[in-house]
Amino acid sequence: MSDFDAIFVGAGHNSLACATHLALKGWKTAVFERNPVSGGAVKTREATLPGFRHDLGAMNLSLFAGSAFHRKYANELKAAGLEFAPVADCFASVFPDGRWFGVSSDIEKTVARLTEFSAEDAATWRRLAGGFMGEAEHLFRLLGSPMSGRALAGTAWNLWRKKGVSGALDTGKLLLSSPRAWLDDTFASPHVKATLAAWGMHLDFAPDIAGGAVFPYLESMANQSFGMVIGKGGADTIIMALEGMLTAAGGRIFHNADVAEILTQDGKATGIRLADGETHTATKALIAGVAPGALPGKLLPKGSGNAGFDTAMKKFRHAPGTMMIHLALDGLPDWTAGAELKNFAYVHVAPSLDQMAKTYAQAVAGLLPDEPVLVVGQPTAIDPSRAPEGKHVLWVQVRALPAEVRGDAAGTIAPGHWDAIKDAYADRALALIEKNAPGLAQKILGRAVLSPIDLERDNPNLVGGDQICGSHHIAQNFLFRPAPGFAAWNTPVRNLHLVGAATWPGAGTGAGSGFMLAQRLAGA
Question: Among candidates 61, 118, 88, which has minimal Cα distance to 340?
Answer without folding.
Answer: 88
